[in-house]
Amino acid sequence: MLIKTTGYLLASVAALYAALGCGKKDPAPGGTTGSAAAPPATAPASSGSGSGPAPAAGKPLKIAFAYVGPVGDAGWTFAHDKARKAVEAEFGDKVTTSFVENVPEAADAERVIRDMVAQGAGLVFGTTFGYMEPMMKVAADAKEVKFEHATGFKLAPNLRTYDSRTYEGAYMVGVIAGGMTRSNVLGVVASIPIPEVIRNINSFTLGAQSVNPAVTTHVVWVNKWFDPPKEGEGAQALLNDGADVLMQNTDSSAVLQTAEKAGKFGFGWDSDMQKFGPSAHLASAVIDWSPYYKKTVKSVLDGTWKSEPTWWGVKQGAIDVVSVSDKVPAALKDKLATVKKGLADGSFAIWKGPLVDQAGKEVLAASQVADDKFLLSINFYVKGVQGKLPSAQ
Amino acid sequence: MESLALQLSSSVNAGTVLALAALGLLVNERAGVINLGAEGMMLVGALAAYATAFHTHSPILGFAAGIAAGAVLAAGFGGLVIWLSTNQYATGLALSLFGGGFAAFAGTGYTDKQLPVQVAFRIPWLADVPFLGTALFAYHPVIYLAAALGMAIAWFLHRSRAGLMLRAIGESPESAHAIGHPVRRIRLTAVMFGGAMCGLAGAYVALAYTRLWVEGLTAGRGWIALALTTFATWRPGRVLLGAYLFGAVTMLQFYLQARGVQVESHLLSMAPYLATILVLVIISRKPAWIRLHMPGSLGKDFRPDT
Asked: Which of A186, A312, B139, B272 could bridge to B249 as Cys pair (CB 3.0-4.6 Å)?
């Protein structure tokens, strides 16, 4: 009797949900809510819509964003979403935007991106390296849709790549780290061993060495972009090992928080993280995707979109170091300002020889400036970084 | 030496989350009910704790909220599994998915909310002892609670009448029912205790271990706790051993990386799992020992009227 009643109750609740769901004007985008940790299911999580009002003439451009993490990570994905909102504000009713969070870097990504195209997206942004193959596949099938792939390297007539010179941000916070460390040991919690991350570790070290040649950098790899407890454990291990300034290439604020708890120093990465560690925070290396996103949307609306790679840095307003703490002495702040100015007007190059790798081999000759090709394939540690470089994914 | 003391203390810290969840699941499973929803309960407990601590500025209320949230979720699970006789494994999986999704949904407003800076916990005088002070006496209160609970649960299960009754119900609910014990009510209590402990573990992650809320915060630790309970053959002492060993090897592998040891980081990150499985399997290798402690009716349904 109890089972029967409960069964009827559950069935009517389910019917109610179905009725509500079918009553919506546009169909609900694909993707069910799910926890990322359950082994049997790999369903990505919630999606959201931020649409403008219906346009007066002509259909608005539908722009879809695929995020690898949650908008609430206050890091990588948060920065992309901030830029998405800037696009909405700039173009008003000429565009409608939507996003799907927590799309894993795996087969599921293809399904989500195909779904975006099926729902009429004219421009799709994939915000992580791991979407490369899925996007290439869908791009081949949807030739009228433009695809933007962040941090990738494969191009197609309707797919192009974009990236930000995060290593400039890493260098600048490295300058601060080198000046603020007392133990001359810096710690980096690193995510996945791809050239971008290795380049950032190296640039961080080079920045620190420019003000303090005696520093060494210790690195731990958590092999995930986002795993707050693991990031915290890695940070703690670095602190136990004697590091007193921490940096991370992961997406949450856990490392900064660990530094705060221990009374040491840390940085924000990708977004401003000052409030997560008020006494530990020295500065945040942030990415501003909005200049590039605005330019892209404008080019799609104007019909001038071309498939070419873009790699913007301080010069184009994509990279900055913000919220520099008052604990940083004025002389160090001046050095930082000089570096920033040099990067902005192109007079200063971070990757300039003579440069040796960890084993002592020369990788850049004296006054040789590294070109983008060199930078994109960095798979060595510079001298001063301790540890064994894991083989890449 | 100080570095070694810090290593020890962070190992215990790392293992506490697993210990709390696994101890709760142990009681749960000893009564014959297997609750695969550990991850969901931990996440909901973490969110409840974080939100409560943020609004009330009281960590104690936060922990209480985490415990309550875990217990409530487990009560729902218990009702379905014990009274409606749904399949325990399927319902547990559903609970873990639901808990994770619900926590993500309800917690969207909290990812950029910051808790006040945490006070460092030290026992006065004792914490100033060189080496032992840092290694043993500068912990968050919940860490001491976890160790105490481990001992309390061991005493309860093996030295008290109520514990005997619980184990009897886990071995053979029909016999226990024939004697006159309220089998289903006791099973529900055990399930709610398991949920409360998972909620406490989640609350600890959100309020002390990593003081933030993001969806998926516990990153699979609920599943590790489930496996730990089984590998430890349902004995509280072994559960604590396994949990702290896991924490110790986790910190050790990061320490080795930081020191620059020339081993692949992927191999090193496998180490905690391998080490814990290896040790627990070796110390529980006799089939007789396993049979002795495995609850006979684990996962099986019980209906008093049949």
From this structure: B272
